[in-house]
Amino acid sequence: MAAGSAGITRTATADGRFGYTEGGDASGTTIVFIHGIGGRAEVFDPQMAAFAPDFHVISWDVPGYGTSAPLETATLPTLAAALGDFLSAIDARDAILVGQSLGGMIVQEAMAAGLVSPKAIVLTGTSPAFGRPDGDFQKKFIEGRLAPLDAGRTMAELADGMMKGLTGPNPDPEGFRIGRDALAATPEESFRAMVYALVDFDQRANLPNISVPALLIAGTEDTSAPPQVMQKMADKIATATYVQLDGAGHLANLDQPDAFTEAMRDFLAGHDSVHA
């Protein structure tokens, strides 16, 4: 195990398949954080440190990131299955799940397939569908993320500019650094695989079936998962609470870590069932 801040350590499942960071009281209610396309477990360091005193906190390296082995084929169904396997391996199938961007899609996919049984969920910077891969938005999305790599630039070279596009005008400096470093360390093959994994995702029909407490956090400056998209998601989930962070971009938990953490803390405090 590698030691981190606030008692957070880096470790792996017994079979070595999945890497993750962990902290807090292992006998407490578990929160599992799931990052997006350009992340790794450490992108939730601010929230891990904040919630470790009161919860058992875990941040997962999605397959192909950090120290988690890549999947042979990365799709939302295979990523959801991997999440189910990971939660089973750490005995946390009923954990509170916090999914950011792609991580939020993985949570939705896993819930729809009955692979997880979370006490509650937090979705941020995400959407319930990507749309048709041949649509104009989808084509621009894929091209915008892959064209620089196709031109020969590296993730390390692109990281700073990408992070600026994922945050608002006044991001938290330490949060910005954490996100930039994660992007720089992202394997190009994993980044490419995850961009293409999005193209068939559509869980819009399942939103009304979500019955656990759900917090949806949007940033007003998020152009990837605009607040109006997340508001519509919340409207279709009977148990949803919607929070909008003014000035925050796509990576709201790093852009405005204190405000993001406060929104989570208020939500969890208002639902006694998540602590059972």
Automatic annotation (TrEMBL):
| EC number of the protein | 3.1.1.24
Q: Source organism's superkingdom?
A: Bacteria
| Annotated GO CC locations | membrane
Alphabetic keyword roster: Hydrolase
Coiled-coil segments, which residues? Answer: none
Broadest EC class assigned to this enzyme: hydrolase
Q: Where is the AB hydrolase-1 domain?
A: 31-262
Single GO MF annotation: 3-oxoadipate enol-lactonase activity
Q: Does the keyword Cell cycle apply?
A: no
**Is the keyword Endoplasmic reticulum assigned to this protein?**
no
Q: What is this protein called?
A: 3-oxoadipate enol-lactonase
Q: Which organism is it from?
A: Amorphus orientalis
